[in-house]
Model the fold of this input.
Amino acid sequence: VQKLGGQEKGETPCCEDMQDTDLELGLDNSAFYDQFAIAQFGLWAAWLTWLGITVMAFLKVYHNYRQEDLLDTLIHEKELLLGRSSRRGSDLKTGLI
Done:
């Protein structure tokens, strides 16, 4: 009977027994943590960039909304002033005060 990882062949080995087994995949994982840190930095940078662009877009929309509100107010005030001055002119012509 051949044993594999402390178990007889045919039995399912438990994870604890398989921890020490070398899989011999021939992989070089020496730079894994460096690559993981670079990927993590890239994700954080992308998220912060997205957040910054989103905040700036909302600020631009808010500014444009306030600017339109200001322009509407200025137009309204101009119409009121022009309306009053034209009324004053017509009142002076008719003799009404």
In short: The beta strands are 3-4, 7-8.
